[in-house]
Amino acid sequence: MIPTPDLSHIKKQDYDRVYEPAEDTFLLLDALEEDEKLIQSLKPRICLEIGSGSGCVTTLLAKIVGDSNALFLTTDINSFACETTRQTGLQNKVTRIEPINTSLVDGILPRLKNRIDILCFNPPYAVTPHEEVGSFGIEASWAGGIDGREVIDELLPYIKDILSPQGLFYLLLIEENKPKEIVEIMKNQYGMNAMIIMQRRAGREKQFIVKIHH
């Protein structure tokens, strides 16, 4: 059992500027822990979390991977989230986190084409008006537009070019995002393997983890 990363360095008012870990975060952490031995067996060299927020997920992933020369890249459109991610790593004695202040995978491709061994994304999945998508502040962490899918759908075409041949992608979704439809899109449009590996109800939300690989 790997302890949840220590976030005591993040002040209460900081959560006005960066997403506070909640049930969705913990479901993603549980999925990574469940696959601990599989992840370790891959001996990941480069891991990427899109939309790292507090840095909680990448920090736990680094603990799972353990002592190695693996590099942990993160992206976030919110510059405060990038700095918070770095600090969360340091708070938990993880020094190999490299935050990049960018949107989704801008700046990652083509340089790291088919190089990412573990990819994680807890996307902005809330159903919101289209106009709320693409902010640079805290709203960017939840505003997902139509069906909560606008940001997710923007990323899906890149997955086959991001993942290494043995790479794994852990994607968090809610029921409104139509997770079964996403599984079918990844299989039929992009020729990838995709399956729902975990689901949990959190209040009124039903949350899912979809795992995708070549």
UniProtKB/TrEMBL annotation:
Residues 27-127 form the Methyltransferase small domain. The keyword Acyltransferase does not apply. Keywords: Methyltransferase, S-adenosyl-L-methionine, Transferase. Signal peptide: none annotated. It comes from the Eukaryota. The keyword Lyase does not apply. InterPro entries: Euk-Arch_PrmC-MTase (IPR052190), PrmC-related (IPR004557), SAM-dependent_MTases_sf (IPR029063), Small_mtfrase_dom (IPR007848). NCBIfam families: hemK_rel_arch. This is Methyltransferase small domain-containing protein. It comes from Mucor flavus.
